Amino acid sequence: MSVDVTGRPALLFYSQHSVGLGHLVRSLSVAEALAGLFRVVLVSGGPVPPGLIVPPSVELVALDPIGARGGADATLASLDRELTLEQAWNRRLDTLLNLLTALGPAALVVELFPLGRRKFAREIIPLLEHARSLDEPPAIVCSVRDILVAGGPDQQAKDDDAAERLNRHFDALLVHGDPSVARLEDTFRPAVTLRVPIHYTGYVVPRRERLRHLPHQPPEILVSAGGGKVGAELLRCAADAHRDHFAPRGLRTRLVTGPFLADEDVTALTALSAECPGLSVERFIPDLATAMAAATASISQCGYNTALDIVRSGVPSIVVPHDEGRETEQAARATRLADLGVLRIVRSAQLSPQRLADEVTSLLAAPRRDVTIDLDGARTSARLVAELVTRIPAHST
Length: 397
Fold this sequence. Notes:
Layout: E1 10-15, H1 22-34, E2 39-44, E3 58-62, E4 66-68, E5 76-78, H2 85-103, E6 107-111, H3 121-133, E7 139-145, H4 155-169, E8 172-176, E9 198-200, E10 220-224, H5 232-246, E11 252-256, H6 263-275, E12 279-282, H7 288-293, E13 297-300, H8 304-313, E14 317-319, H9 329-339, E15 344-345, H10 353-365, H11 377-391
Parallel strand pairs: 1-2, 1-6, 2-3, 6-7, 7-8, 8-9, 10-11, 10-13, 11-12, 13-14, 14-15
Antiparallel strand pairs: 4-5
Helix pairs in contact: 1-11, 2-3, 5-6, 5-10
């Protein structure tokens, strides 16, 4: 096991995002907390957008990007047009194995796999096997969000396969959620008995403190679409709602497209904003929670990070969960938070400018319940990984 000049052991963190930014943002928050105890090297397998803040205590290694050009069910492709998909796979695996050998880490953290990211098994399984073959194998930890995506009629087989891989390759499973909101077994039900310990860490946010909701004047509706890859319909609808309903009421509307919204959609929204007073368009806001706290109301999807920004900011919120194809995660999270009184839901099939306007009117007239949700997930994760390394300093292969 290698240590740096400060005496911290190394930790290798694998993270892959394909559609949105949520996986990378959450991984960076956990990695920053881990960096107080470890030399953290985070490898990211998706595109890293300009403006994303990487903590200075975390070493980020960008793999040749592979992702889905389209929704989560789309075929994987090399996002570097100078590399074929096969070339990208080979270069990525070489980078991963070389890093693992060079670092000799005390811990290896793998985000989501094997409960997701099955399409990346061709590089993750060799990484796990190589880790176990080292003279001093690292503690191996799976880092997973609160709610998983349902996989259709073959879900049972997928769950059983994931459980077998957890038992074979991993030492612990960290669930980044609060069991009072959602439990792992709600969306993961293997028939195979899990032998790895499961730890709920609380939700992972960049900072734990709640923000004061102090909306500025004039009143502003903040509309955000996560990474933006699947947010075009929501943004267009909100722009139309502003033109037809919000602007006549003296409301401003601020559209945050996300860095992955198609350029042609950004161009169209920007052109509309030039013709529509009070409508503005931005690509990316590094601290969305602070922007929400200054808004009169929020309209968004319901990815992990956006949902927690809503919780932290206290902003009155409407969510339109992304539910295309087999995407069930956002709808499930939205339902649980709606039951707690955190937000209101508009289903994508019901989305229209008039519906958004009506919901905003009702939202601003309704009282909002204060809820207590564990937001200490990053710090708890770091403590649990450190305890695991201490408890099993070396593994038998």
